Amino acid sequence: MKRTSERLAAIAPSATLAVDAKAKALQAAGENVIGFGAGEPDFPTPAHIVEAAVEACRDPKNHRYTPAGGLPELKAAIAAKTLRDSGFECAPSQVLVTNGGKHAVYTAFAALCDPGDEVICPAPYWTTYPEAITLAGGVPVVIDTDAASGFQVTIEQLDAAYTERTKVLLFVSPDNPSGSVCPPDMVRAIGEWALDHGVWVITDEIYEHLTYGDNVFASMPTLVPELANQCIIVNGVAKTYAMTGWRVGWMIGPDDVVKASTNFQSHATSNVANVSQRAALAAVSGSLDDVVMMRSAFARRAQTMWTMLNAIDGVGCLEPQGAFYAYPDLTGLLNRPIDGVTATNTLELADLVLDKAKVAFVPGEAFGLGGYGRFSFALGDENLVEGIERFAALVNG
Prior knowledge:
single chain, 3-stranded antiparallel sheet
């Protein structure tokens, strides 16, 4: 008899967390490792948010169960914040507060997918998306993009991927891992395509505040209002407010979908930790001054990393437009000796670089598109420069 279900046994471990764990294990053993793997800001959570949590700890009402779908005042604040930041209007009843953005992603797919339903999933994709789709009973239909297209999916590709089983289109901008931002006109065109084909859209807006230069975030249901009845927004406080460890996310959708999702959560986890919800309330209802500061630092680091990567022989990198990742093409480093070792793919290259240079990045295979690597610039400026210098020194011999 099998000891675990086929459903869970088939789940691939998170490659991004695995790389981060390997780097931290080496650091714990005394190695000077510089990690470009983890997708979390290196800034502390802003002080006013922490203080709100401290006060919440002292209030006995936060020591008890609260509504499974989220504190009413937080749901109202999320609705107000969504209108403020993306122009999309929703009622608090359309908001479900979840245990982090990742939980919102899974819940959204669980709410929409029946066994065999197809979900169009452009690559490169965040490692969790295909696993969440499969766990929910759906079938990921992967569309490849590349650097030449700016990692943007086309309407022609959507047409080619569409079948009578297509239920959902996954849309992410700003994107993890590519760092691309979809222009508003293309966001609108994709939304209209989904509307015309009767396809649901799950749009992940977790990086909405992290765009650089002339690139701007655009919310699909704002640009295509008729899509609101077949669209779920997933978001959270993790990236914008440097709150990855607080585990507060949310989904916004039509009333019937949110009601079903709330019922599901009531059995799966009940409510999100109340202290974390109080901290999230302070975040989403407060000033964006700290966000502006962090975005400025990320923009500076993006330029530094982009310039340094493109200076390496065999590496080509598009300028990061959003999130906090560069996604360079590393195929020029494959099948050539590097310090006596030849890597034939970016999985092998990542291991080589970690072993020889003590620099950790996530290989493109983790995101469904080999030949590339994800380098997070959510780390201090000095470590960023030293890490890329080590990488360059190794691969250039």
